[in-house]
Specification:
609 residues; Rossmann fold; 6-stranded mixed β-sheet; 4-stranded antiparallel β-sheet; 21 helices; elongated; ATP binding; ATP hydrolysis activity; AAA+_ATPase; ATP-binding; transmembrane
C-alpha cells in the first residue's frame, strides 16, 4: 500500500488544491458527524424534563471555555422559555440546533466528495494518458512476447479497478479516522469506562477481517491476468474471423473463451465470497458490542446513576458513529487489495524501461545528403542470429532491392534501419552519423514505410493519409492519391476523401488499401522509402496498379525494396540476394541472370507460378 501511494504521489501533486480542500472538508464533516449526536442531548433533555435551569446569561471568557459557554447559553435560552410557559419555542430552538448540525455535516461531506471526485478522476485520467504514451513509445521488442489483450486489459480494466476499489482508500483515509477520533473525544467526556469498552472492539474486528482478506490480492491478480487472456482471445477471434469460419474452428475458439471465462468466474466468486464477508462480520461484531454496551451502560444509568439517560442515548449514537466508519474501513480494506493488484499491473507498464532510448546528447538529422550505410551488422531476436556480418550501401537516389527466401532476414533490415530494434554488432549510419546517436523522431522523419499488411485506421481516407503530414492541404492529399494510383476509385466514392475506411480498412479491397498506404507515404514525401513486400499479398491486377503507384513514388527518391515477387524489382540499381542472414549474390538484374546462380533459380521458379 505504502509503495503504491508513493508511486501515485507524482500524479496526486498536480491536484494538491483538491487534496487540501478534501482534507479540510472531511475534518469538518467528521467534527459535525460527532456534534450531530451531541446536538440531540438538549432536545432529549427538553422532552424528558431534564434541562438544567440557568437564570443568568453566561459570560464569554475565551475559546478555552467554549464548550461550557455554549451549554450554558443554550440552557439559559431554553430554560427561559420553559419557565415562561412556552415549551414549543424551547423545542423549536433545540430542533433547529439538530437540523443545522446535520445540514452542515452533509454540506461539508458534499464538498469533500466533490474535491475527491476531481482528484480521483484527474489522477486516473493522467494515469491513463501516461500509460498510453508509454505503450506507444515502448519498442516493438516489448510486444513480441506479450499478448495485446493483456496490455489492453491493463489500460482499460485495471485502471477502472483502481477507480472502483483502490481510490476508496483515498476517500476514507481522512474522513473515517477523523470521525472516529472526534467521536472518541466526546465519548470520553461522557464516560471513560464505556469508551474503553468500545475501543476493545476495534482491534478484535480488525484482526478477524484481516485474516479473512489475506488471499484477496493474489486472487485479484490472477483474475486480472485471466481478463487479459480473455480480451486477447476476443481480439484474435475478430482479427482472424475469416480463418475461424473457413476452417469451421468456431468450437475451438468458443471452448478457449468458455474455459477462460469459467476461470474468471471461479476467481471472481472466491473474491466475492470474501468481499461479502466483510459487511456481515463487522455488522455482527458491532451488534454484539452494542448489545453488551446497552447492558453495561444501562447499569450505569439505572443502578449507579453515574451517567444521565439522555447523555447515554447520545453516547450510543457516538458509539454507532465509530462503528459505521470502522465497518466502512473494513469493507474498503477488501476492495483495496483488488485495487493494489490492479495498481501493480498498471505501474509495471509505466515503469517498463525503454530499451531504445534517445541518448541525452542525441543529434537531430535535418535531411539526407549522401548515403545510408549498413556496415557489417549482426542481429538476433532471441538466441539465433538472423543477420550475420551483413553490409550494404544505399546511395542517395538509388534503388536497392533485397530478395531471398522467407526467413532470410529481408524484413529485419527494414526493422533495423528504422531503429525498431537495435543491432547487436556493427553500425548503421545516415550521412556518416550512427543512428544510435540521433533522435528516433528525426531518423524516422526521413523514411516512409509501406508494409505488406496495409495498415489503415478506422477513420476517414483523409485522416489516414494525413498521418504522414498533418498540415497538408486537401489539394496535396489529392495529388498524393493520384501518384499512388488511388484517386481513380476515391473520386468515385459518394463522400470522396471523407469516406470512412472501416475497421482495418476492410471497406476496401487489398489493392485499394495498399494504394491508400502508398498515398500516405507519398504525402509524407520522405527522402528514403522502404517498401517491405508491398505487393506480395495482391492479385495480379492489383499488383499491376500498385506497381505503377510504387514506380511513381520512387522517382528521384532513395529506396530500399524488400521483394518477394521479383518482377517488381528488375529495374533496381542493385539487387541483393540473401540466404540465412547473409549476402550470397549482388548486382543488377542482368548481371545476376548471367551469373546463373540463386537469383536466376528464384526468377525461374516464379515464372512458373
Amino acid at each position: 500500500m505504502k509503495k503504491i501511494i508513493h508511486q501515485l504521489l507524482p500524479f496526486i501533486k498536480k491536484f494538491k488544491k483538491h487534496v487540501v480542500f478534501n482534507v479540510l472538508f472531511n475534518l469538518l464533516y467528521a467534527l459535525f458527524s460527532a456534534l450531530a449526536f451531541i446536538s440531540l442531548i438538549p432536545m432529549l433533555n427538553v422532552l424528558f424534563g431534564q434541562t438544567t435551569t440557568e437564570t443568568t446569561a453566561p459570560v464569554w471568557t475565551g475559546l478555552s471555555d467554549i464548550k461550557n459557554y455554549g451549554e450554558q447559553l443554550l440552557n439559559y435560552k431554553v430554560s427561559g422559555y420553559l419557565d415562561s410557559g412556552n415549551p414549543q419555542m424551547a423545542l423549536v430552538i433545540v430542533i433547529a440546533l439538530v437540523i443545522s448540525t446535520f445540514i452542515l455535516k452533509n454540506l461539508f461531506g458534499y464538498f469533500a466528495n466533490q474535491h475527491m471526485m476531481y482528484l480521483k478522476n484527474g489522477v486516473l485520467n493522467d494515469l491513463r494518458k501516461d500509460m498510453y504514451q508509454k505503450i506507444i513509445k515502448l519498442p516493438l521488442s516489448f510486444y513480441s512476447k506479450r499478448q495485446k489483450g493483456d496490455v489492453m486489459a491493463r489500460i482499460l480494466g485495471d485502471i477502472n479497478e483502481m477507480q472502483n476499489s483502490f481510490f476508496i482508500a483515498l476517500e476514507l483515509i481522512v474522513r473515517e479516522p477523523a470521525t472516529i477520533i472526534f467521536s472518541l473525544i466526546f465519548m470520553f467526556s461522557f464516560s471513560w469506562k464505556l469508551t474503553l469498552f468500545v475501543l476493545l472492539f476495534i482491534p478484535f474486528a480488525g484482526f478477524l477481517i484481516s485474516r479473512i482478506g489475506k488471499s484477496l490480492k493474489s486472487n485479484s491478480l490472477k483474475a486480472q491476468q485471466e481478463s487479459g487472456k480473455l480480451i486477447s482471445i476476443v481480439e484474435e477471434s475478430l482479427t482472424g474471423l475469416k480463418i475461424v469460419k473457413s476452417y469451421n474452428a468456431e468450437n475451438i475458439f468458443s471452448n478457449n473463451f468458455t474455459n477462460s471465462s469459467n476461470r474468471i468466474l471461479k476467481l471472481s466468486n472466491k473474491i466475492g465470497i470474501k468481499n461479502n464477508l466483510a459487511g456481515p462480520v463487522s455488522e455482527v461484531l458491532g451488534i454484539a458490542t452494542i448489545a453488551v454496551l446497552l447492558w453495561y451502560g444501562g447499569q450505569l444509568v439505572l443502578v449507579e446513576n453515574i451517567i444521565k439517560g439522555t447523555d447515554f442515548l447520545a453516547f450510543m449514537g457516538l458509539a454507532y458513529a465509530i462503528l459505521t466508519p470502522a465497518k466502512a474501513i473494513s469493507k474498503a480494506s477488501y476492495k483495496v487489495k483488488n485495487g493494489m493488484a490492479a495498481a501493480d499491473r498498471v505501474f509495471e507498464i509505466l515503469h517498463e524501461e525503454d530499451t531504445l532510448p534517445d541518448l541525452p546528447n542525441a543529434t537531430v538529422l535535418n535531411g539526407f545528403e549522401s548515403e545510408l550505410k549498413v556496415d557489417n551488422i549482426s542481429f538476433k531476436y532471441d538466441d539465433d542470429y538472423v543477420l550475420k556480418n551483413f553490409s550494404i550501401n544505399v546511395t542517395k537516389g538509388k534503388t536497392i532491392a533485397l530478395v531471398g527466401q522467407s526467413g532470410s532476414g529481408k524484413s529485419t533490415i527494414a526493422n533495423l534501419v528504422t531503429r525498431f530494434y537495435d543491432i547487436n554488432d556493427g553500425n548503421i549510419t545516415v550521412d556518416g552519423q550512427n543512428i544510435k546517436n540521433v533522435t528516433k523522431k528525426s531518423l524516422r522523419s526521413l523514411m516512409g514505410l509501406v508494409t505488406q499488411d496495409s495498415i489503415l485506421f478506422n477513420d476517414t481516407i483523409k485522416n489516414n493519409i494525413l498521418i504522414g503530414k498533418p498540415d497538408a492541404t486537401e489539394a496535396q492529399i489529392i495529388d498524393a492519391l493520384k501518384i499512388a494510383n488511388a484517386w481513380e476509385f476515391v473520386s468515385e466514392l459518394p463522400n470522396g476523401i471523407e469516406t470512412n475506411v472501416g475497421d482495418a480498412g476492410n471497406n476496401f479491397s487489398g489493392g485499394q488499401k495498399q494504394r491508400l498506404s502508398i498515398a500516405r507515404a507519398v504525402l509524407k514525401n520522405p527522402p528514403i522509402m522502404i517498401l517491405d513486400e508491398a505487393t506480395s499479398a495482391l492479385d495480379t491486377e492489383s499488383e499491376r496498379l500498385v506497381q505503377v503507384a510504387l514506380e511513381n513514388m520512387m522517382k528521384n527518391r532513395t529506396s530500399i525494396v524488400i521483394a518477394h515477387r521479383l518482377s517488381t524489382i528488375q529495374n533496381a540499381d542493385e539487387i541483393i540476394v540473401m540466404q540465412k542472414g547473409q549476402i550470397v549474390e549482388q548486382g543488377t538484374h542482368t548481371q545476376l541472370i548471367e551469373k546463373d546462380g540463386m537469383y536466376k533459380r528464384l526468377v525461374e521458379m516464379q515464372s512458373f507460378e
